[in-house]
Specification:
This protein is an alpha/beta fold and about 325 residues long. Helices cover about 35% and strands about 15% of the residues. The protein is built from 11 helices and 12 strands. The strands form 2 sheets. Strands 1, 2, 3, 4, 5, 8, 9, 10, 11 and 12 form a 10-stranded mixed beta sheet that branches. The protein has a two-stranded antiparallel ribbon with strand order 6-7. It is globular. The relative contact order is 0.13. It binds ligand PBG and zinc ion.
Amino acid sequence: MTSQFPQARPRRLRRSPELRGLFQETEFTLNDLVLPIFVEEEIDDFVPITSMPGVQRIPEKKLASEIERYARAGIKSVMTFGVSHHLDASGSDTWKERGLVSRMSSIIKDAVPEMIVMSDTCFCEYTDHGHCGVMHGAHVDNDATLVNLGKQAVAAARAGADVIAPSAAMDGQVQAIRRALDDAGFTHIPIMAYSTKFASALYGPFREAGGSALKGDRKSYQMNPMNRREAVRESLLDEQEGADALMVKPAGAYLDIIRDIREASRLPVAAYQVSGEYAMIKFGAQAGAIDEDRVVRETLGSIKRAGADLIFTYFAMDLALAGI
Ligand code: PBG
Ligand code: ZN
C-alpha cells in the first residue's frame, strides 16, 4: 500500500480548540440525557447511597422540590424507581391507584408538568423475594407476571407517566403492556423497552440503592452477557411487539451491541449507563486515578458514538449543573 503521507495530515484539523470543535463528529446535550432517581416512601431525610457517592434516595415528601431543582438546572427527563415499604409476593403496590409508582408520577407532573416521566415498570423493588415478577416455585412465572405488568403500566399512565419503561425481562412484556395501555385508552403513551438487558454484575450498587431483597440472581430472565446474536434478537422481538424505542443495558461494556441494534432497527435506541459504571468512575476519581469530568464526557460520548440516541445516566444532573 502506498502511503498517503505527506498529502494526508489529519493533524491539520486538530490545531486549535476551534478547529477541533468544528470537526467534532459526536455531541450530546441535555435533550439526550435521562436522570434515573430513587424515591423512598415514609422517610423524612435524604439517604446517601454509599456505593454511589453523590446519589441519594429522595424522600417522597421532598420529591416535588427536588424535581423543581432538576428542571431549573435543565434536566428534561427522569426515570422513576421506588423504594417501597409495602412488599408482598407479587409487588401489588405497583398497580394500586395510590401506590408508590403512581404517586411518583403524579407528584412529578404536578410539580413540573413539562418534565418527561419515564416510569420504570418492574416488581423487584416491591416484592418480598426481590425478583422481577411472580414466583412459581423457584422460577419467575413469565405469563402471570405479564398480567401484572399490564396493570402497573395502566396505573402509571393514569397517574401521568409520559413513557412506560418495562425492565422485568419477561418474554412478551411489550405486547402485554401495549394491549393493556390501548384497552385503557392510552394509545398515545409510548413504550421504552429495556429490550436488551444483560444479567450484569454492574447492577451491584443499584441493589443497595433500591434496597433489593434479592437472594440469588436474575440469570433465568436477563440475558447472558456473552451473547451478541441473541442481544439483537431480543431487541427486534420487542420492536415486533410494538416497542416505540429500544434500550441496551448496561452501556459501556456493550458498545458493540448498541451499534448492532442501531443498524438492525430504525427505532430510537437508548443506552443505560448503570450504577456500576457510575461507581467505577466515581471511586476511580476519588482515588485520584482519573479525572471524573473528562471520563464522564468520554464515556457518554462513546455511548453516543456507538449509536445511542438517548442515555440514562446518574451523571445527568452534574452535567446539567456544569451547563453541559
Ligand atoms: C431491575 C433493574 C435493574 C436496574 C434497574 N432496574 C437491574 C437488576 O437489579 O437486575 C439496574 C440499574 C442500575 O444498575 O443502574 N428491574
Ligand atoms: Zn426488576
